[in-house]
């Protein structure tokens, strides 16, 4: 029995979709080496395996589980208060795969992290460092700070203050009169964002980084607006929701087309929109045509997510703090403007009949966005996008609806990533076990149509052993037998993988 074969068997069994809980629990043994960590991080797990990993005495197993993308995050709640600060930090930081669809953590985990008094019993990480990991991971829903405005814990109300402009008037008044002095002081500072005179009095030098942030987000006095025009620092004005109407009219006439593009879709543009629909710049004209369909800032945000991006955009997909109405999305789906149809295709709640229509849209980007965003996107569309747009492949492979059949006609495709999916298709008559690419051979060896006799042969070949061990046709008793050889025999994995 070679050490190399054992490593391949262990990795294959770790990702075998029909491996039973008792098989997978055996991989948590130190003798299994890195296979247990790879399994805990890289696949969905039965409840019994999750329970065993949560209680596992070895830190690296709990660290791996904390980064799992496939397990319901609610099951990972005990790791938020794990004795190890490193485990907590891994959960706060999220999966290292960096998927496009960022799954938010449940509120109870967020509250645990953001109200913690320490970073764990080991003292290697502070609670502030863990909170920093959390905020940068994008696992905090955009609505969370606003939802915490009335929470019992003052630290969470403080986070709400930092999102001052997203709060309701009632929430702002309550925070200004908060029983906690730190919250009251922060609320007082936050309220100055909407006081033009206070902003003018505290404005740093125009051109500095902080000034750009202020000019892009705060209410501005006429004097500050004039200073921006005088310094030709108008990009922040074009992005600021509080920019007055007369300033917007001037920005719509600005000689820089980029400035005119920035204001062309604003819902508060007014009569200047008509001027921009005749603009000499084609992109400005296109954006201005969209403007009558954009009535609110929420709708504006959804259009902005699309209008500046192309076919291979792989920006994160996050749940917005609030969404436009379903009727607005339906109107976008029927629009003559491709950008608005792309917006509709990006909404996961679009009804099935509209999904069917957009799946046949003439605009390729509409079809790509539908494939990447909508759970009801048809299998043929997911296949087409996978084959033609490689940038989206990592994301498509994470989607529950991604098809595993219908690939057989692509078995001779020049791209090995495509051939690998064809090689794994259970409707393929003869999996290509002799393909020149390692990944294709592994996929072929994992094809469930292979006979038990063929599997036994493949298990003894270094080129196919991992795929054969991952094959769902491999009986559970045979998995146990392979584990017996690797975990209890003279060539135990602990000696190879460093325990």
Polypeptide structure, described:
It is a single chain. By secondary structure, the chain is an all-alpha fold. Helix content is 53%, strand content 0%. The protein has 33 helices and no strands. The chain has helices at 3-14, 21-26, 34-42, 47-54, 59-66, 85-93, 107-114, 127-136, 144-147, 154-161, 169-176, 181-191, 196-202, 209-217, 222-230, 235-239, 245-251, 257-264, 272-276, 282-290, 297-307, 326-333, 338-345, 352-358, 364-373, 379-388, 393-396, 416-424, 438-445, 452-459, 465-469, 476-487, 494-497. Helix 3 (34-42) packs parallel to helix 5 (59-66) and helix 21 (297-307) crosses helix 23 (338-345). The two termini are 19 Å apart. 38% of the residues are buried. Residues 493-499 have low confidence and may be disordered.
Radius of gyration: 28 Å
Poorly predicted regions are 493-499
Largest sheet: none
How many helices? The count is 33
Instruction: State mean pLDDT (0 to 100 scale).
Output: 95
Query: In percent, how much strand structure appears in the residues?
Result: under 5%
Number of strands: 0
Ends apart, CA distance between termini: 19 Å
Shape, per Cα inertia axes:
flat
Helix content: 40-55%
Structural classification: mainly alpha
Feature tags:
single chain, 499 residues, mainly alpha, 33 helices, flat, disordered C terminus
What topology emerges from the helices and strands here?
Blueprint: H1 3-14, H2 21-26, H3 34-42, H4 47-54, H5 59-66, H6 85-93, H7 107-114, H8 127-136, H9 144-147, H10 154-161, H11 169-176, H12 181-191, H13 196-202, H14 209-217, H15 222-230, H16 235-239, H17 245-251, H18 257-264, H19 272-276, H20 282-290, H21 297-307, H22 326-333, H23 338-345, H24 352-358, H25 364-373, H26 379-388, H27 393-396, H28 416-424, H29 438-445, H30 452-459, H31 465-469, H32 476-487, H33 494-497
């Amino acid at each position: 029995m070679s050490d190399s074969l054992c490593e391949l068997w262990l990795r294959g069994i770790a990702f075998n979709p029909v491996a039973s809980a008792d098989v997978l629990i055996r991989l948590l043994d130190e003798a299994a080496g890195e296979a247990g960590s790879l399994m805990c991080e890289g696949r969905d797990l039965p409840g019994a395996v999750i329970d065993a990993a949560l209680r596992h005495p070895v830190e690296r197993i709990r660290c791996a589980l904390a980064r799992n993308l496939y397990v319901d995050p609610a099951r990972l709640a005990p790791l938020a208060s794990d004795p190890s600060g490193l485990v907590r930090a891994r959960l706060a930081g999220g999966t290292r795969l960096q998927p496009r669809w960022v799954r938010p953590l449940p509120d109870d985990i967020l509250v645990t992290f953001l109200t913690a008094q320490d970073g764990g019993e080991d003292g290697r990480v502070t609670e502030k460092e863990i909170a920093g990991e959390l905020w940068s991971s994008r696992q905090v829903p955009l609505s969370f700070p606003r939802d915490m405005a009335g929470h019992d814990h003052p630290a969470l109300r403080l986070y709400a203050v930092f999102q001052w402009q997203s709060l309701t008037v009632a929430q702002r008044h309550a925070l200004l009169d908060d029983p906690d002095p730190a919250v009251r002081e922060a609320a007082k500072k936050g309220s100055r964002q909407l006081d033009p005179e206070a902003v003018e009095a505290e404005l740093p030098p125009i051109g500095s980084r902080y000034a750009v942030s202020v000019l892009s987000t705060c209410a501005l006095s006429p004097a500050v607006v004039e200073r921006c025009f005088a310094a030709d620092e108008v990009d922040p004005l074009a992005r600021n929701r509080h920019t007055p109407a007369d300033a917007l009219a001037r920005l719509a006439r600005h000689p820089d087309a980029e400035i005119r593009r920035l204001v062309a879709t604003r819902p508060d543009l007014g009569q200047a929109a008509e001027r921009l629909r005749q603009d000499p710049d084609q992109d400005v004209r296109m954006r201005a045509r969209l403007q009558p369909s954009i009535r609110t800032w929420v709708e504006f945000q959804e259009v902005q997510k699309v209008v500046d991006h192309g076919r291979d955009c792989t920006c994160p997909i996050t749940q917005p703090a609030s969404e436009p109405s379903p009727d607005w999305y339906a109107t976008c789906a029927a629009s003559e403007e491709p950008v608005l149809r792309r917006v509709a295709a990006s909404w996961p709640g679009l009804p099935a009949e509209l999904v069917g229509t957009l799946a046949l849209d003439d605009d390729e980007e509409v079809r790509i966005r539908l494939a990447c965003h909508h759970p009801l996107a048809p299998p043929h569309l997911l296949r087409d996008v996978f084959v033609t747009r490689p940038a989206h492949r990592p994301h498509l492979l994470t989607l529950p609806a991604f098809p595993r059949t219908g690939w057989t006609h692509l078995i001779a495709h020049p791209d090995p990533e495509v051939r690998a999916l064809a090689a794994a298709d259970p409707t393929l008559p003869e999996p290509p076990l002799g393909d020149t690419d390692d990944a294709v051979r592994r996929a072929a060896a994992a094809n469930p149509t292979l006979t038990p006799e063929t599997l036994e042969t493949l298990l003894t070949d270094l080129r196919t052993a991992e795929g054969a061990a991952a094959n769902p046709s491999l009986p559970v008793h045979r998995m146990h037998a392979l584990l017996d050889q690797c975990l209890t025999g003279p060539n135990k994995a602990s000696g190879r993988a460093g325990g």
